Amino acid sequence: MTIIAAADGSALGNPGPAGWAWYVDDEHWAAGGWPHGTNNQGELTAVLDLLEQTADTDQDLVIHCDSMYVINSITKWMPGWKRKAWRKGDGKPVMNVEIMQALDAAMQGRKVRFEWVKGHSGHELNEKADRLANGAAAAYQRGAAPDSGPGWSGATPTTREIPSATTEPDLFSELVAEPTDEEQVIALERSLLADETRSDPAAVAALLHPQWSEIGQSGRLWTREEMLDEIAPLASPVTLDVVACMPAGPDAMLLTWRAVTDEGSTLRSSLWVRAGGGWQQLFHQGTPEA
């Protein structure tokens, strides 16, 4: 027999009140969270709790997940991180390392297959897990404890500690003074090149304006929906060299930059607008450099 489940996470504010949940059926599900956490921490913890609660079964496990960050972390990146003493290819520490190490231990000896599903697309198990995770985050926002659910039969639920605030730093945490608009926009542009962001459609969606579009270097016009469907980690590292960053209006910044890879360079421009107190990319264009 194979256990088929969905796991999901939620954060209201990201970071903010956060929740996680996994769902098999109405008799087998669990949820939890913290007063302050990130969406990725919720996504990872949902998978970890599912693995730990089903550890004593001899059944295979299929986990439906809408986060490529979670799937790639466990199935692709983790062996390399372990060889580098839990550091990434750029030498920086792996984010959420405590949860990653617990996941590594929980995966030992298990037959687990991950299947990516598009979030909010009507997938029954994913929708159930999403609602439970959002409900847990909303409970913490109200100052209440969420319904932890029945869990897995015979399993003892694990008390989840509040994630360390240093495991997933804010984009601007290394800046001593209040970041300028230019610094914020450049940091956000860099984040769109990071594997952790590009593996998480929810994180990308938060950075793209609802009316976002792009004219790619091939001449293709991309819509926001098309980009969210296809975005993935880059095939090779990209270096962002700022050419110019200047105001384009009271709440708009135009960033021009050079993307440098082993294959060559591309000149790119991004228009960022202030929306809801934060910055979102409204338009992007890339042109091969002569």
TrEMBL record:
Top-level EC class: hydrolase
The residues that hold Mg(2+) 2 are: D8, D130
Q: Which organism is it from?
A: Knoellia remsis
**Residues involved in Mg(2+) 1 binding:** D8, E43, D66
Q: Which GO terms describe its molecular function?
A: magnesium ion binding; nucleic acid binding; RNA-DNA hybrid ribonuclease activity
Q: Which cofactor does it need?
A: Mg(2+)
- Mind telling me which SUPFAM superfamilies this protein's record contains? NTF2-like, Ribonuclease H-like
CC terms in the record's Gene Ontology section: cytoplasm
Which protein family is it in? Belongs to the RNase H family.
Which keywords, in A-to-Z order, does the entry hold? Cytoplasm, Endonuclease, Hydrolase, Magnesium, Metal-binding, Nuclease
- Residues annotated as region Disordered? 142-167
Q: Cite the cofactor comment.
A: Binds 1 Mg(2+) ion per subunit. May bind a second metal ion at a regulatory site, or after substrate binding.
Extract one GO BP annotation from the record: DNA replication, removal of RNA primer
What name does UniProt use for this protein? Ribonuclease H
Polar residues bias locations: 155-167
Q: What EC number(s) has UniProt assigned to this enzyme?
A: 3.1.26.4
